[in-house]
Amino acid sequence: MNKRVVVTGLGVISPIGEDLSTFWSSLSSGVSGVGKVSHFDASDFPSQLGAEVSEFDPTSHHIDKREARKMDRFTQFAVAAAFQAWSDAGLDKNNSLQKERMGVALGSGIGGIDTIEKQAAILREKGPRKVSPFLVPMLIANMASGYVSILLELQGPNTTVVTACASATHTIGDSYRIIQRGDADLMVAGGSEAAITPLAYSGFCAARALSTRSEPEKASRPFDKERDGFVMGEGAGVVILEELESALTRGAQIYGEIVGYGMSGDAYHVTAPDTDGKGACLSMQRCLDDAGIKSEEVDYLNAHGTSTDYNDKIETLAIKKVFDEHAYRLAISSNKSMIGHLLGAAGGAEFIATLLAMKHNLIPPTINYEVPDPDCDLDYVPNTPRQLNVKLAMSNSFGFGGTNGSLLVKKYISEGQE
Question: What angle do CA 15, 394, 246 make, to 5 degrees?
């Protein structure tokens, strides 16, 4: 029999908060984390907007100052969020669980691009002898998982997923499978990204993917007819997944139980989603099938909702196909309206938002929804939060290359409460 998997810890670094309470307070109040880019001079760029983690100090997140200099910013975010989640789960380095049965799976869409850019400039200007000996371990995407494994002394599975904007969702889903089949008792899972850099930013500008609105806080507007592109964000979202009996034995808090995971490929285009939404449909349907759940049982859907023309329209179409008439009764919202698009970390932060919505029975709104779009005519919980008893929720993530992932989480009710 497959083992049951629950979520026992959450950790987040985001543009609207570097801890759970601030993140949730901002998210549930509709606070925008979007502003003018400050990491570099963006005055010559077509867009100058970003959702930045503006006051991050790694030394305030259990990272030694000397060690921090050997980490790219995306790794610093991952370590900080992982330590948060570890503490939130009531764990410490001397806990009774076997380190050989505890692992790490963290995703990133891009990895250490800030390091690549800075070291490439040093190579051009000063020559190869001045390039940092830490260049390679700073830039590779699996160093986030590596550092967390080392610092927490976890000797179970240690892996990384790089699937663009679905990376974090896939690491959580894959970790669910690892525990489900008995290969580990606990996994630290999620994603991290720090790609608001001149090169990455100029690439998205060249692709005309970013919003160019003049009002930063109004720029990210998923499902709104006047949306004109996404806003780049940065941060990390990390969760502790644990085998149910392990969690119950140590009296851990339980945010929810993962009951379904679906994946698919569009097999269509490197950046554009399949126009009939088939890939997104397959991901969501496989997630429901994996859980043995009927679509009408889902209360809330945390949408990928990027604020781009194609994604929002096609995700809406796919939701209608999968959920049929229930699609119009389903509460849907996009956190990207407030935190921007965290790329490879998006699924981690948004899965955390989904779990917090379940805990508080409160749906975070989709802010900036002002002009209805005939192609996006579902209930996106516009502008104000909504009280709702969330028993079952889905979280979607879709990425370049046509990669898709969906997670289904259920409110955990102990046997004595059923």
Answer: 90
